[in-house]
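Worked example 2:
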Amino acid sequence: MIETRRLQPADRPRWETLFRAYIAFYERTLDDAAYDRAWREIASGTRLHGLGAWLDGELVGITHFLVHPSSSEPDLCYLEDLFTVPEARGHGVASALVEAVGEWARTQGCGSVYWQTHEANATARRLYDRLARYEGFVVYTMPLG
């Protein structure tokens, strides 16, 4: 049985382990201050939100998301990060997290949930193709620093 719920202060150490693994998966690095800042935002629950998924009592998946206004529809929920430990993949953890974000967003009056993944992430894309509609948009990023 998979349980999803808001991350709590006691979840911080395991959350950080999973978030570090997520960052490493995408071959990125963050300094410790970035993890502290992310946790502060998630813990406050005002701008950035976090959910965890527990399988057999162990935190095995995390997701981070936020709400922003839209010029043409109700507010949108952006699912920013999603990670499941390799040992728990294929057990419905990621699906449970995406669905939990969707339910949360629905209660907030959002019009939709959207996210992005790398085009080479075939495993995630198979799941996402079942859960959502690919609308063909290409993402561009302009670094400012």
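DSSP finds four helices and five strands in the chain. Helices lie at 12-25, 32-44, 93-107, 122-131.
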